[in-house]
Amino acid sequence: MSLKILVTGANGQLGSELKRIAGNLYQYTFVDIEEMDLADEQSINHFFKEKHFDFIINCAAYTAVDRAEEDSEVAYRVN
User: Which has the least CB within 10 A, 2, 5, 35, 49?
Assistant: First the structure.
């Protein structure tokens, strides 16, 4: 039985690199904001409703440094 691993932030710098090197040893699921918005509790609950993972690797981050001060609430929730 293969471990199921969820990786968030799949389209970011770290997530895409992990996707590139992941291999076949484990069963990876890569998601980004389109599939699960980490700043939205309902989106997270909906995503996990019928899914189970053994591990979660969170590569998602709010990286717009200039906007983070203006949008600090969202930046805090995502990071």
Answer: 49
